[in-house]
Amino acid sequence: MDSKTLYFGYGSNLNRSDWERWCAEKGYDASLLTPVEAAWLPDFSLRFHYRSSGRKGGAADVVPDCRGTAVPGMLFSLSEEAWDQLDKKEGHPRYYTRCPVRVITTSGDLVDATTYVVVSEKREPQLVPPADEYHAVVLDGLLNHKLPIEHLKKAIESFEANSTLEHVFVYGTLMQGEQRWPQLSSWSSHVQQGSISGGLYHLGAYPGLRLDEQGTVHGELHRCEDITNALAVFDQIEGCDEANPLSGLYLRAPVQVNVEGVPVWAWTYVINRLPADAQRLERGRWVR
Q1: Fold observed for domain 167-280
Q2: Residues of the chain with CATH 3.10.490.10
Q3: CATH code for the part of the protein at 6-157
Q4: In the list 46, 55, 159, 278, which could disulfide-bond 274, CB 3.0-4.6 Å?
Q5: Which of 239, 242, 266 is closest to 102 using CA atoms?
Q6: Cα–Cα nearest to 9, from 51, 47, 49, 37
């Protein structure tokens, strides 16, 4: 494998102490696994359907799921030697196997990476609860990287739980009273004012958001009970290209919304390419 290929970790490898412990036991160099950036695996859910003898219970896996689901994790850079180490830790290819994925970073970039998924013959058709120790390892890893834990709680409680983000953050024509508000209103069950980190630009009839810039962007946080079908409508409105996301007008990405000091993860829409004449809105508010 190309040593520059990034690894997306979502389970025990989020926990640095667990990785260092394993490397120490095997006599490996733990520093070869280097964190790069937090990221999300869209259209996947976390699942516990593999029984690990080493973990004395269920171990985490990710499975393809519907629109609106996403599993949080971290991107890591590895040397070729580190990939060999990781293969051994994950039991590749007997228990877990490498899988190419495309993830969205918290700065709004779409990145090709590799993760590990449980091989089909090792999956059980029911929930395999993780041991308390393993649960704590994954939980601490998520918390240490300031990632949400709701999907972990749901996956431990129910075999068919979805790693769903049920909120949408809007900052332009989908806000209340704006031109496209009627297309959001029927899906929204609760709305709050909120803000995110990023840069907002005036593009004429609508605004554009960039997450890779400093600043504060103000908007609305909407909870949608039927997020899967709601996003199908919003994706079409925003010109998202499901087959080739980077060719669309906008890219849908998870973002952390500040609502009166409380963080809530939600979907939002990031402009793929800013026009040369785009004007930065320093106050982070768009007015038509």
Answers
A1: Hypothetical upf0131 protein ytfp (3.10.490)
A2: 6-157, 167-280
A3: 3.10.490.10
A4: 278
A5: 242
A6: 37
Q: What is the dihedral of CA 263, 208, 212, 147, to 10 degrees?
A: 20
> Which value, in Å, is the radius of gyration of the alpha carbons in the chain?
20
C-beta separation of 61 from 137 below 8 A: no
Q: How far apart are the first and last CA of the chain?
A: 49
Amino acid, single-letter form, for residue 238? E
CB atoms within 10 A of CB 34: 12
Amino acid at 89: K
Q: If you search the block for the tokens 């026009």, which residue do you land on?
A: 275
- Strand partners for 110: 104
CB burial readout 131-157, b (16+ within 10 A) else e:
eeebbebbbbbbeebebbeebbebbbe
The residue with tokens 């779409």 is: 110
pLDDT tens digits for the chain (288 residues)? Answer: 344 689 999 999 999 999 999 999 999 999 999 999 999 999 999 999 999 999 999 999 999 999 999 999 999 999 899 999 999 999 999 999 999 999 999 999 999 999 999 999 999 999 999 999 999 999 999 999 999 999 999 999 999 999 999 999 999 999 999 999 999 999 999 999 999 999 999 998 999 999 999 999 999 999 999 999 999 999 999 999 988 998 999 999 999 999 999 999 999 999 999 999 999 999 999 987
Q: Evaluate whether 23 touches 86 at the Cβ level (below 8 Å).
A: no
